[in-house]
Amino acid sequence: MKCRSVEWLMIFLVLTLAGSMLVACDRQQAEIPAVAEMRTMKDDLGRDVRLPEKVTRAVSLAPSITEMVFAAGAGDRLVGVTSYCDHPAAAKNIQKIGDTQSPNIEAIIAVRPEVILVSTASQLEAFASALEGQSAAVFVLDIRGLGDVADRLRRLGQIFSSGERAELAAIEFENRIAAVKRRPRAKRPARVLLQISEADLFTIGRDSFITELIERAGGMSVTADIPGGYPKLSKETALALDPEVIILSDSPDNLNPNDALRNSAAVRSGRVYRVNADILSRPGPRLADALEQLAALLRQEPTGN
Amino acid sequence: MKRANYIFLLLIAGLAAALAAAMLLGSERVSVFEMTEQGRAILFDIRIPRVLLGACVGASLALAGASLQALLRNPLAEPYLLGVSNGAALGTLIAFVLLGDVAGARPVLAFAGAGIATFAVYQMARSKAGMNVERLVLSGVIITTFLSSIIVLLTSLLDAARLRGYTFWLLGDLSQATYNGFYLTLAAAAAGTIVLSSQARALNLMMIGERDAFDHGVEVGRVRIIIFGAASVLVGTSVAASGSVGYVGLIVPHIVRLVVGSDNRLVVPMSAIAGAIFVVLADTVARTAIAPRELPVGAITALIGAPLFIFLLRRN
Could you tell me how many CB contacts below 8 A there are between chain A and chain B? Predict the structure, then answer.
């Protein structure tokens, strides 16, 4: 008798479970026709992100992404950007939702975005739980350098249904990169040191996209073999590397080459150049500007002194 | 006293060996026998001032730690833990933000910051019943965290590029060594060794108790001002040159006491030499471990210092 009651209990439990699953399945199926204007796109982490067919309200969490969205012809869809997003000029008038490292979740929710465009996996992790239950989708764009820009412009064109403008921007970008490649260049690539800060001598390493930028511009980064993206370089090594060209990414704490470089070939021959830090450091459409400027600088002959 | 002389000799030989090793090692190989112009520049313009500065910073911090521990009768008294280093760091940051590159502003404000922090901790820890250990440590923690929060606030207000440099400097970093910085810390460390050694006998008596010391003719108030003043100068010049290198003032005097006992006539000068050795070796690791990239030396001293401290605590 006892045995039988346990059996009945089991059967009851299994049936309840199966029933509830059926209901759940049923609900899921029922939801699909209700949101027919939704679609699914893969982001750069390979996640399937559900987006509205027509995205009208988006938030960008990186200056480079803001520039990309504007270039793709959808700047008017941005309802929130970071305090670093200062280009193009229209971006300055968009609601600020904190900075790239610490965006303000409440401010983001307040602008009711359908999509939040983030640049790295770490940003995503910060959001995944905080945005649970909100209707905004988080889309990761991982632009690793020159090679990714045109493709991501087209992707943004799909997201914002601004395909034509985005396609034009992508083609223009590709053409500018190709034009630099066709230009005549020095027989031997100049040995370039890119200095990010003077006193602390931060520079670019193997993983920085600027390393590739310098190569495409007809030079070679003397720190290309150093592991990491933006290492702090030993002054001894900087001196020993003896670069022929020094590029200073322009900022108030980076006005001159580090002391260790004062007798380098670059300083002796006057080949020290400043380049706007924003166009160098933001993996977006202005990388074409950076590439053209670098190529022009690297073609210059040493002035000698 | 004979054994003490022997240890002194050993320490001096150790310092010479550490300095020599540090000057021979670096991210670039420099041959002493076939000196090129480049090798000479690396050795004399970059490596040697850094090694010498490291020695002076180590000596200064260990001196400050040894004398504060004796004065406050507290083995936990250390510039870093008491908030003195943070006071100096805040002073340096303020000098940087407000005065930019005005020569001499940073060490002066660093000294002022260290002095104010020392005074604040001392006042908070003091009570009618005298100073007790818990109050002192608690005051140190409060001042340290309070100053840290102001530093975080200030660095958040600086723009991103400047902030990047300061994260290294705040951890203790010798990469911006110059001969001028070295001369200044050398002067401070030498003066500190002489002044603090001259107070060693008074410190010995004060370790028994301030009342006993007073009965033996020690001017307790004067000694206290001398020690606090000297420690502030030592920590101020060190921090202005290299940020807050932690654990040196804690670990070094402890190890010295383990070897020679608690006589401050030995502990104070020996701590200076041992502190110099410790920082010179730690910075050699910082310069070479992931060369040609660099680590902040403070990360190495903390990495060695924290486990060593736990070990010493459990042993005693």
Answer: 75
